Amino acid sequence: MKNINKKFWMGIIVALAFYGVVKVLLTTGVLSDVNQSMLLLIGVNIMLAVSLNLITGITGQFSIGHAGFMSVGAYTSAILTLDYNVPFIPAIIAGGLLAAVFGVLIGMPTLRLNGDYLAIATLGFGEIIRIIMLNTEFVGGASGLSGIPAKTTWTMLFFFTLISVVLINNFIRSTHGRACIAIRENEIAAEAMGINTTRYKIIAFTIGALFAGIAGGLSAHTFYVITPGSFNFLKSFEIIVMVVLGGLGSTAGSIVGAVFVTLLYTYLREFPEWRMIIYSIVLILMMIFRPSGLLGTTKFSFGKFGKKEAKANDAIEGSSAP
Amino acid sequence: MEYFIQQLINGISVGSIYALIALGYTMVYGIIKLINFAHGDVFMVGSFIGLYSAKYLANAGLPPIVVLLLSLIISMTISALLGITIERLAYKPLRKSTRIAALITAIGVSFLLEYTGVLILGPQAQGFPDIMEKKQYHLFGSSIQVESNQIMILLTTIILMLVLQYIVRYTKTGKAMRAVSFDVEAARLMGINVDRTISATFAIGSALAAAAGVIFGMTYNSVDPLMGVMPGLKAFVAAVLGGIGSIPGALVGGLLLGTVETEISSLGFSSWRDGVAFAVLILILIFKPSGLFGKNVREKV
């Protein structure tokens, strides 16, 4: 326990140091506006990837509707700040909570499904949310909402990202997280061991949706404009790419994947077709030659401090990714 | 009433396109338990091959019916080869790995085909030539219209469906396919060449998707590299609706979905059409996961 605590605080200190350095670089103007918006995008994507990893990587429930949760959060918080003058942070949290409600709603009926069918059902739900947004005049229809105040700053984003990573990571390491991993490894065996699989699947969906919603709200308040089209199947797919690339089931992997994909996205902005072609080739080759992703199931840990424990964890979990 | 019947006829012609694509999904799923996301894009490729061969053959001055048949055959053959190639390169190395890995690969292949298409053909839609002159017939002297295209679509679908039934029921490959879908290991022990059977499944499924692509082009006169996404998903919905793995199920599911969609559009909710299709899918999955014609399989430990 002592070891985990020490490691945990070291991690927080490293992260805060990183925050401080970037903050200084931003205020002194070393990092340009372009870099700042890229940093914000990286943060949002980290939240999305880490939250999807909880659903897909840890609990083993393949979901391709993550952008749907994101859009619920984005629209809710944008409407609250635009039309009702709600302060920024409560609006973001409200967006997250509503997305979490959607997580429960989607989680409950689809839990009977597994594997491929769940994937398709979540895809369907994501598309239904998009079509509802598209046909609702109140939320701007096809043209979406614009003029959203750009209130997401580096500080806001950093702390939201840090909190979501820490919370999700601690959840994964808790008893509940172990239960989720058990479901991933073998649902029937987990059930037989007395784990309430339904309950844990709903929990995973809800937490995942909550943070996706928060990420959506933050991204809406970064880029002024949201349209239903920005939360389509492609966006969900992009989040999956991040998680898979980093390594299903690894929080550190999701972070690496999110950073990598965002960089790729930013630098290939001029060549959108090539971007998608590279995405897909990377994904196919990855699945064939290294299905466990870049980092495998490596736990989120900070360098040397976590080595002993990481090994012990590997022994428990084995090397099998879902 | 007449209006309703008119919409029913339109629905059936949309539905036959879904049904043809759904057959490919159903066959592949039945045999290797993989949702082949790339199937909708094979449909797109088939459509484009049909477009180019039709243009070329029409310029060569052949009669329309020959142009139609030849472009169908060319498109089906090339797409069948494409299907086999995809299977060999992307899915075969993954036979032993997890279902999620295979599903992700399928999504990857789908995007690869789409954006290679965008890169080569450009993102804008292209016009599909009128291979056959469109004629309109009035049923029983009433105001119900049937287009020659719609008749041709239904005919093509029925003929292909009969050929497929024949292949699956009476040929050696068909028997092998049924055996493999029943139990891969047992089939292998009985001396069935499993790899070749899987390739055959992909070839037949892709050829049917290509036929659907040509028909789609002739109906809507417009094709683009991303056109496979929605029909692909809808066809999957149709396959699930009918019970995935079941050939008659795919036909019924496709026709049903096409009809429901057209009726919804005709009631003035066309922008909700896609949403309704997915809602139907989710309802079916929740209440009857094995579909209308599917078998209930108990989970084995």
Automatic annotation (TrEMBL), chain B:
Keywords: Amino-acid transport, Cell inner membrane, Cell membrane, Membrane, Transmembrane, Transmembrane helix, Transport. This is Branched-chain amino acid ABC transporter permease. InterPro entries: ABC_BtuC-like, ABC_transp_permease, BCAA_transport_permease. It is found in: Cell membrane. It comes from the Bacteria. Belongs to the binding-protein-dependent transport system permease family. LivHM subfamily. The chain crosses the membrane at residues 12-32, 64-86, 98-122, 151-168, 198-216, 236-260, 272-293. Its main location: membrane. Signal peptide: none annotated. It is a multi-pass membrane protein.
